[in-house]
Amino acid sequence: MSCNTSVTRLCVSSVNEAQRAPVHLTPCEIEHNGPAQVSQYFTATTKNRKQEQTVSFRGRCLRGQELSCPQGYTGLVLKEINKPGSDQEDRTVKVSSVFDKLTYWNLETPPNSDDTVVMAMDWPELAEAIHGPVED
Amino acid sequence: MATKKKRTPNAESDSWVVIAADSVIDTQKHDSDPAFVRLRNPATDEASLYLLGSGDVQLYEVKAFQEDFRSWFIGQAVQRDGKLLFVTPMDPLYLILPYLIKSGKEGKFQPVEQLVVDEEFPACSRLLSCTRSLASLHHVTEEKEVGGRKFHRYSEEKTMSWLKKKVERTVAALRMRNVCVGEGVTSATYVRVKPESDGREEDFLRYAHGLLSEYISEQLSKALLTHLGLPEPSSPKEAEPPSKKRKLSDKPVEAGEDYTKFNSADFARKPPKKMTTAQKSLAKVDKTGMKPMSSFFSPKVKAEKK
């Protein structure tokens, strides 16, 4: 059983060294973790038309849209450093990249306001209603 | 494709894409780092992941949004796990409340630091360091002051009116976001409404009650429903989701990953009316169009069992 006493420290000072990276949410699962020539084979071929972007990826037409992080929020990519051997030990994550907007891609369907990730961006506002202080 | 390609199991990721409140990374005020901690989830009674901000002054909820068949490109790298985590400020009182209720059964006034203790989750005492914790205890307890020391006793009556205010705030936010809550849409769903359709008050109340029920015990959730003057849903279809949800949220999470946990499922999105040939063939394997929306609004970020 995992240990409820271990904590994962978020090393905040790492934000200062974090790079801004373009972030794309693909409409497919890619069985890989690690380096890829994203700008050469993906970003380079995207086409911009007004709000919507298109790209051909593995012969499929992807339609994408850029989304900004909600106001007062920042996008962070957290990476674990010095992974411990057991789950009893405390862990540490650092901020490896920051972003203030991301591009999400649908397979053939044009991006629209009912897309999950679009609605997810509304969550902070709803959370504020649920968690904000109530008056006496 | 005649045969479906087998997927390799998703190994534990060591990287997470997060959208976090700016205050999380604000290093000006305190020198200590924020920490992800496991605390007892008030709705499931099991471990969930939360974040305590620098100096423990603010509690944050960690909520995962996930669809099937999604991955990330981050700079010049692929991250297979397409999950998106939100870290949003959370009211610590939701997590403190179960401890107050538990000791409230003894009927005694007690100092709060004696009430909020948990052998299984020692970090729970850190909740009392949150700025808002001590200041908001009076919403759910009766207070007595003796010799400069405060003593508390749980009050269900006060808790109900506190939760009702929470519901009212949430209803107001839902109205502002134009969230569709009415006519066959059950509480935990989430769809944008066309301007002409105007949800009934009861639908908004039920929806807000559903959202809040993610932060309170089932028993309290039922009591709140009565307090709001809402009858228990009568039709079996409506009555099903809460129990189903709770059952599903008890499931252990796959593949050694701390930050996931979703419950499911009151609502399936309608698939697009017209499908292209490609979409039709995809529909056989890709069930994302049918994925219940409520799963994206569940707070259960549960720690896995190893």
From TrEMBL, chain A:
GO BP, sorted A to Z: RNA catabolic process
GO cellular component entries: ribonuclease H2 complex
CDD domains linked to this entry: RNase_H2-C (cd09271)
Coiled coil: none
Protein name, per record: Uncharacterized protein
Organism lineage: Eukaryota, Metazoa, Chordata, Craniata, Vertebrata
Gene: rnaseh2c
From TrEMBL, chain B:
Binding partners and assembly: The RNase H2 complex is a heterotrimer composed of the catalytic subunit RNASEH2A and the non-catalytic subunits RNASEH2B and RNASEH2C.
Ranges for region Disordered: 228-306
Compartment(s) where it occurs, according to its Swiss-Prot or TrEMBL record: Nucleus
Claim: Amino-acid biosynthesis is one of the keywords in the record: no
GO biological process, one term: RNA catabolic process
PANTHER family in the cross-refs: RIBONUCLEASE H2 SUBUNIT B
GO CC annotations on file: nucleoplasm; ribonuclease H2 complex
Ranges for domain Rnh202 triple barrel: 28-91
Coiled coil: none
One of the Pfam families matching this protein, by short name: RNase_H2-Ydr279
Residue ranges constituting the Ribonuclease H2 subunit B wHTH domain according to the UniProt record: 94-224
Domain of life: Eukaryota
Source organism: Salarias fasciatus (Jewelled blenny)
Entry similarity comment: Belongs to the RNase H2 subunit B family.
Chief subcellular location: nucleus
Extent of Basic and acidic residues compositional bias: 235-260
Its job: Non catalytic subunit of RNase H2, an endonuclease that specifically degrades the RNA of RNA:DNA hybrids. Participates in DNA replication, possibly by mediating the removal of lagging-strand Okazaki fragment RNA primers during DNA replication. Mediates the excision of single ribonucleotides from DNA:RNA duplexes.
Protein name from the UniProt record: Ribonuclease H2 subunit B
Keywords: Nucleus
